[in-house]
Amino acid sequence: MSRGPGLPGTLRVLGHEMRRGEAGKVAALAVAAGVWYLASADPATGDWIGWWNQASIKVQVYGVIVMGSLMSAAAAWSAGRAHRTGTRAWADTTPRGGWPQALLLWGAAWLWSVAGYAVMAAVAFVRTAAVSEVTEPVWSPLVLAVAMTGLQIAAGVAAGTLLPSRIVAPAAGVFWYGAFVVLAFAPGLRVGRLLPAVDDHWDVTFRPATLRLLVAAVWCAAAALALLALPALVRRTVVGPGAVAAVPAVVALAAAGALLSFRSPDPDPFWATRAPQPAAPACVTEGRATACLWPADRHLLPQAGAAARTVDRAVGGLPGFRLRFYETGLRPPQGAPAAELPVYRPVVDRRTLTEAVLDAALPEPPRGCAPIEHAEAGGYPDLFLVQAVLRTRAGLPAPYYGEAFGAAVERVSKAPAVEQDRWLSGAARAVGACAPVPALPR
């Protein structure tokens, strides 16, 4: 067996492939699209700018599904170059074995993808840092993405080497993209853990399941190395990889077995775990109303304070309404009555959060209580009427369900303040007791 070139020669060949190969151009196109996608997102309507978990997930899922599929196609095209140019026989006579040749092609494409991830992660994290008041970049999904893209590229190299056809490159890209589409419609398939594109929504109530993500990264990396050895094992015209090729195969099997054996409590996502309760939530008190958020959402305290102030003005002195609000996932102190405050996005304007807090302030009917229809409100449930009156009282738009409903809301809203208070207090007690609300003021 002839001795292969040393490290300097290998690095020169790798640099040449990175400069002259197709993978760099494809990576530049994918990264340009990814940067535009991340940089043009509107914080007011996006679901990730301001949450470190979700920012990492956005980069990961775009990188795997879009960039990984494109880079796999580019790698397959590069690997088939010797077939297209008629230089396969010459390439097979080089002192470098079949596995090192595949590793060079793979490395050129993979390093471009790693550089692309770094650029996209920087854009996503800068945008999140501009909103969030904590600095907690999440890296484990990105590590998994880098490894998964490596597996995709390795599959492209193997396919392009073994199948001398121009159709192989686009087929490789279509295969990966189609696989992710199919798995998205069947999230319960355990085999999907071996092709991880984590398209979950991780708000502040979750944190990455780091062990699972790293085991998946080991599986992807080892499977990639094993795949790259396959062409040299099949094609007898090149120097084979020898017994050392069994090492990544064994590691891949072990990691895959561990990954498939993990259990996740339903309905929690497989790749995340519940975040532990914070030692001290971020709370704001206005009058008699208090709103508490996860510390990672403390950038929303001004909006939460405005919402608590509105609730205090609207129903602060009335019995039956709730005045303590804890963001979803937070547990209030033992025995303290509180309402859940949902925060669906990392950026929420004051009006949206105020409406959410007002709705949370409504009395809760007893478990199993059927909605009680209100004849004077057009037959709609009592609670709908109380909600509309409360929003009108707070100066916010109220839901409208027809003329009769609107007239009932107006009768309460135009009544003197004392009568309004009396009706709302009675209505709150009635809803809490699963009884009809009092008659409307005259």
Layout of SSEs?
Layout: H1 7-20, H2 23-39, H3 52-79, H4 81-85, H5 88-92, H6 98-129, H7 140-162, H8 168-184, E1 206-208, H9 210-234, H10 246-261, E2 272-274, E3 282-286, E4 289-293, H11 301-315, E5 324-327, E6 339-341, H12 350-361, E7 373-374, E8 380-381, H13 382-393, H14 403-413, H15 417-432
Structure summary, number of beta strands: 8
Output mean pLDDT: 89
What's the number of helices? 15
| Secondary-structure element pattern, one letter each | HHHHHHHHEHHEEEHEEHEEHHH
Global morphology: elongated
Oligomer: single chain
Query: Could you tell me the strand content as a percent range?
Result: 5-15%
Instruction: Return residue spans where pLDDT drops below 50 for at least 5 consecutive residues.
Output: none
| Gyration radius, rounded | 30 Å
How do the strands line up in the largest sheet? 3-4-5-6
Q: What profile does the largest beta sheet have?
A: 4 strands, mixed
By secondary-structure content and strand pairing, the structural class works out as: alpha/beta
The helix content, as a percent range, equals 55-70%
Terminal Cα span: 102 Å
